Amino acid sequence: MTGNPPPGEPPDVEGGRSDDTLMTERAAEGDEDAFAVLVRRHAPSLLRLATRLLGDRTEAEDAVQEAFVGAWRSLPEFQGRSSFGTWMYRIVTNRCLNILRARRPQAPLNELPDLPAPAYTTAPDRITEGRAALHDVQEALSTLSPEQRICWTLRTLDGRSYAFIAKTVGISEQAVRARVFRARRQLTHSLGAWQ
Amino acid sequence: MTNLPPETRTDPDDETLPCGRLLSQVWADWEEGVHDDHTTQCAHCRLAVADLERLESQVRALDSDPAQQPVDAASFIDRVMDVVRLELRPGRPLPLGETDEDLRIMENVAARALRRAAEEVPGVRAGSCRLGGTPVDVDLSVHVPLTTPDVQALAQQIRDRVDVTAHERLGLHLGEINVRITDLVSEDEAAPRSAQEGSAP
Q: For the complex shown, is ipTM > 0.90?
């Protein structure tokens, strides 16, 4: 009964770390083409991250777009202490945290995002099961505090280490562990009913 | 929830299983792949782990649900860049040609041409390119291949390319050309050249 611990920090730079550094320098000096390279390179993973954190693709796109535009504005002051990817990851995570905090505590069920039709490659029996479960999980996730939800999502879905999450969110590793534990306890309770 | 919870070893929300173990510890051990004789045999611990495993497998299955996957990143990227292009930072105007001519080139336009010139030297990738002063001095940062036999000679080649481009293509009279080598990169660290042109990965 060994767990399946996610890896610490999966690589998130596809175009080469060295090239990312150069593109960041150029973008900081106002080269929008270099910034476009960075956006193209990092948008897919950041969109995936924000969608996981918020559970809503439209909101996720807005959050990531604002994060990129904010990054473009503050790039001239960016000191390059971390990589562009790590910097953006932090910006997007904290923006999502603020969005979750601003949400009304209990969103009515009818405000949950409507689900688009699944791809035709998905087996029909799995669709029904999957869509029902999605609704239940989203409902269960909405009962978590924003902090719990962020820490749990980064740990479980995004596979980040406790140390990485602590640095990203700006709290202690111990606090991250406590939040992930509470989230797991809450979720196993909430979802136990439909097992 | 603005205050952080007190960082105590025992979480007030923790639970002691009938076997005496703390739920948080059982789950932490599972996550880290730690197990002892007790955990492999205790029905309570195994049940707790099974609950967590079921939760994790359910949410992972959900995570791969097509409804959760962002689609059409291309149009998203276009939208971001449309906003960015409304807020360009072209830099300062630099004097072109002779002193009595009233010609100017924006710093960024010149920097872009000079970076490209530096990159005509095989293996060279240009980053920061700052221009300023009268005559205009250039401070250029580059990454060069780890395998470069003579870094000094390469720097001179870069300087020459930059100088020729500034003179012949831009009509920009340069003062000093300072080339800073900020990294020696191996092949696999460097990106494919296509990334520079901005083609989709």
A: no
